[in-house]
Amino acid sequence: MKHNRYFLPTPFCIAVCAALLCPMNVEAVPFTVFSVGDPVLEDIRFLSREAGHSLISFTPPFSRDEIALFLNEFDVETLSPVGREAYSRIQAALSPETLLSSGFFSLSTHIILTGEARIRTNVDVLWDDFSYHFKDSPALLSAPVNLFFGNTVQLFIEPVINRDPSVFDEENTVFGMNVPYTSDNFDMNMPLRAFFAVGGPWWNFELGRDRVSFGVGRTGNMAISDTPDYYDMARFSLFSSVFKYSLLISQTPLTLNGSNNSLLAPDAKTPDFSDGGMNSTTNRYLYVHRFDIRLFKKVSLALTEGVMVGNSPLELRFINPLTIFHSFFSWRDYPDWNKQADRSHMIGSLFSVDVEWAIIPSLALYGQFVMNELSTQYEIDNFPEEQAPNATGYLLGLEFDRDFSGWQTVVWGEFVYTDPFLYVLSSPFASFIWMRRLADMGTKPLRYTWFGHWEGRDTILFAVGSSFSKGRLNFSADVSYALKGEHTLLWDWGMGQGYNDQKTPSGLSEKRLTAAFGSTWQILSYLTLYGQIGGAVIFNAQHTLGNTEYGGFFALSVKVFY
Questions:
Q1: CA-to-CA distance for 382 and 385, rounded, in angstroms?
Q2: Does 162 have pLDDT greater than 50?
Q3: In angstroms, what CA-CA distances link 370 with 3, 59, 211, 223, 350?
Q4: How far apart are CA 503 and CA 280, in angstroms?
Q5: Which whole-number Å values give the CA distances from 192 to 62, 130, 136, 548, in the listed order?
Q6: I want to staple 233 with a disulfide (CB 3.0 to 4.6 A). Which of 250, 275, 373, 472 is the partner?
C-alpha cells in the first residue's frame, strides 16, 4: 500500500493562510500561548472556582484570546482580595515585558538558575514513590526566549541544561542533585519546549514540542496527561466562551527493546524478527479530537476520541473528527505486528468523557472516564475466548478554593481506578505508550511512560492535597494511598476469559502510603527557596508478601530568576 509522505496537514495550511491574511497591529498585545505548568492556569482555576463557575475549557495550552474571554466574565469590584490579585497577575501575563522591540517585532527572555539537592533514607524507595513531584527534576539552567511578530505570531524556544531523568533512580545513593556533572548525565533531548504558535480571537495553531494535559485532575488526567516529558505535535483549536474544538497530532516513535531493557513482558508473544517482525518505527502517530462544551457557566463537558496508528506516515483520514470509527474500519489496512498471535493489530482507539460541576461558589465536583476496550457482558458470556480484556479507567475529584483572611486556599481530593489492561492494546505499537531515548544512547535504557495518568494501569489511588498562599509564602501538603497490581509498563496483552476475569489490583497488591509537605518562600523578586519533606511506607514491596519498606526524604531548591 502506497502512502503520500509529502503533504502538509490541513490545520497547518489553514493556520498559515490565516496568519498571512490577518493584519498585524504593532500596538496590540503580543500573541502568547500559555502551556501546562504556567502559574496563569492555576490563577484561572482559582478565579473560576471562587466565583462558582465551571471552567471554560479543560484543554490547554490556552492562547491570549482564550484567556481574555475568561477575564471578561468577572467584575473586578466583586472579587475577593485574593481574587483581585489573581486577576491582576493574569492581566500582567497577557502583556509580557519585552527586552527588545522594533516595529511589529519584539523579544522577551530571562534566565532561570535552579539548584536542587535531595536526600533519602532508603534507596529501595524510588523518588517518585515519595511524591509525584519528583517525576522530573528542575533544569539547572533555562533561558526561555519569546519572539513576537505583531499580534498574531509567537516563536518560543527554551534552551536548558538539565540532568538526564533516569539518573536519580539509577544511582543507588541516598543523595542526589540536578547538576549534570558528567557527560552521560546531560539530557540530550534539549530543548524540551520549542514551538511556533499563531492565532486570533477565535482560533489558534501550535507546531513543535510542548507540554499537554487534557483535564482538571490534580494527580494527572486519564486520557492525555502531562506524564510524557514532552509532545512533538501539531495542535489546532477553535474556541468561544461556550465551545472549544481541539485537534492534536503527535509523532510518537517506539522501539521495543534497547540494549538494557525491553518493553515486552518475559512471557509475551514476541514476533520472529527474522521473519519480518517489527521492533521499531518512527512512523507512529497519535490523532486526538476533543470537544469542550459549557452550559450556564455551571457545568462543563469534554469528549475526547482518538487513535494510535502504529506504523504509517501521516494520514489525512484521521484528521477529521470521529476517528474512533476509523479505528473500527481501518485496522485491516495494516499488516499484523505478530503473525503468530491471534490478534496483533497496529491501530488502537481512545475515548474519554470529562465532567465538571460548579456546585456552589468555591466548591466543584469533577470526574473522568477513559476506555480503550470494552466487552459487554453478553459478549463475555457467549464468546469468552474471543474477547479482548476490558480497558477502562475512572477519576473522581472534589475541590474547594477560597480566600481565607488573605490566604489563597485550595483543598482537593481524588480517587482513581484503572483496569489491568488500560492503555494496552493488541500490539505494543497500538498501545498508548510514549518513549524517548536518553543520554549516552545505546547503553542507557529507553524511557517509557503512559500518555494517560502517571500511575498507569492496575491501580487504585486515593489522594488529598492542599495549598495555602499569601504574598511571597506558600505552604502545601498531600497524602496518598495507592494499591498497585503486578501489571506495570510492559506489553502483556492477551484475549480470553482469564484476562477479563482480572480485577484491579491484580495479584498480590503493593500498598503505598505517602505524605509530603512543602514550602516556598520568595525572599526577593529574583530569589526563591523551596523545601519539601515527607516519607513513604510500602507494604508487600515488589509484590513480595510481608516485605515492607520505609523511607523518608528531604529536598531543597534555590531558584534565581533574572
A1: 9
A2: yes
A3: 31, 16, 20, 6, 7
A4: 31
A5: 19, 25, 12, 37
A6: 250
- Asked if residue 14 has pLDDT above 60, the reply is no
Residue indicated by cell numbers 511571597? 472
As a whole number of angstroms, the distance between CA 225 and CA 230 comes to 10
Residues 406, 517: Cα–Cα separation, whole Å: 21
Measured CA to CA, the distance from residue 398 to residue 237 in angstroms comes to 28
The pTM (predicted TM-score) of the whole model is 0.91
Helix, strand or coil, per DSSP, at residue 239: strand
CA pair distance 130, 344, nearest whole angstrom: 37
Q: Cell triple for residue 151?
A: 499580534
Reduced to 3 states (helix: H, G, I; strand: E, B; else coil), residue 118 is strand
d(CA 452, CA 456): 7
- Distances 339 to 193, 199, 335 between C-alpha atoms, Å: 39, 46, 9
Nearest to 516 by CA among 533, 528, 493: 533
331 phi and psi angles, rounded to 5 deg = -65, -25
The total number of residues written for the chain in this structure:
562
Q: What is the pLDDT of residues 236-268, one digit of tens each?
A: 999 999 999 999 999 999 998 754 557 888 777
The arithmetic mean of pLDDT across residues 410-437, rounded, is 94
CA–CA gap between residue 151 and residue 148 (Å, rounded): 8
Cα 373 from Cα 493, distance rounded (Å): 12
Residue keyed to cell 511524591: 131
Beta pairing, strands 100-102 & 153-157: unpaired
Question: How large a percentage of the chain has pLDDT more than 70?
Answer: 88
Structure confidence by residue, pLDDT tens digits, 524-554: 989 999 999 999 999 999 889 989 999 999 9
pLDDT at 441: 58
Whether the CB-CB separation of 498 and 390 falls below 8 Å is answered with: no
Highest CATH level, class, for 10-110+141-260+280-434 = mainly beta
